[in-house]
Amino acid sequence: MRVRIIFLLKNKGGYVPFHHQYLLAQLIKGLILQGGDRKYRDFVNYNFSGLKGQTKISRNGLHYYSSRITLVLSSSDKDFIDYLLKVLFTYDQVEVGNLVMVPEFVEEEKMPEITEATKFICISPLVLLKPEFNDSTAKSFISPTSDQFSDMLYESTIYRMEQEGSFTQEQLSSFYKFQVVPDRGYLNKIREGQKKFARIYPLFDQDVKYEVRGYTFPFTLYAAREVQEFIFSNGLGSCTHKGFGMLDIANSDPTQRAARYELEGVPTRTPQQHQRQSQSQDQD
Predict the structure, then answer these.
(1) Do 64 and 11 fall within a single domain?
(2) Mean pLDDT of all residues in the chain?
(3) 155, HSE (Cβ side, Cα atoms, 13 Å)
(4) Range of the domain at 238
(5) pLDDT digits over 25-62, tens only?
């Protein structure tokens, strides 16, 4: 499931680095540990977006000027989502980079209709390889149009589905259909504009800094519906709990899938408030 966490921004113009997933990963890990539930201490089956809001670019990074900022958090484990939200809303405010944000309310993002051929966009970079200490392999470039690219994503997906424990071995064996087909028109346009769809990003684990190569481009995934839904809830590729590999459906407005999220101690909002919020963001 996915939830949209909306924060009030106390310091308009505050900023974070262009890639701030590692800061969000630190915040989420801190909340997990602060909650004190040992069951989730090493839990990794979740995914999250970057911070969404109206931004301007400077040498320091991304400056946010909207009154509210949204973070999308996703996991197939609803109990984990509830746990994290309850911990988050015990705080009057949280800081990410230079931003000071007040948790305001939460809404659920309903699962869209997914078929065995789904076009996705990357709303956070897609990482193929888990980094290792003193090893630069995770920075290697692998062409998205190659079979190797699809094979690596398939292997990591089936492994994560197996570790999650909701699928039988018979089911996992039946999920052999898996092919990532990049939007070649997009890739050609990026190359012609001398832009990049693959960059090196920082990642921290146990206070050690790593670097990984992340890819950002639209693609069509051919796979069983169960595999598609798992990926939509938990991310695709490696390091998903570090904020990589979050996807969304192409040509779809996620705010149209938003609904009330009922959880004691966590504020929600009515459809009327949702409409006023959308109008307010359009004016900011």
Answers:
(1) yes
(2) 90
(3) 9
(4) 117-249
(5) 999 999 999 999 999 999 999 999 999 999 999 998 99
Nearest Cα neighbor of 160 from 24, 42, 46 is: 46
The answer on 105 and 130 residing in a single domain is no
Report the C-alpha gap between 116 and 159 in whole angstroms: 20
**Residues 240, 265 within the same domain:** no
Closest CA to 139 of 154, 151, 148, 129: 129
What tokens does 107 get?
Answer: 């809404």
Q: pLDDT per residue over 217-252, tens digit each?
A: 999 999 999 999 999 999 999 999 999 999 999 888
Beta strands per DSSP E along the chain: 2-9, 15-16, 47-48, 55-58, 61-64, 68-74, 94-96, 99-109, 117-122, 126-127, 178-182, 198-205, 208-215, 219-223, 247-249, 258-260
Domain count, the chain: 2
The Cα 265–Cα 103 span in angstroms is: 12
> How far is it, in rounded angstroms, from Cα 283 to Cα 7?
17
Integer CA distances (angstroms), 199 to 59, 121, 140, 194, in order: 18, 16, 10, 13
Number of alpha helices (DSSP H) and beta strands (DSSP E) in the chain: 7, 16
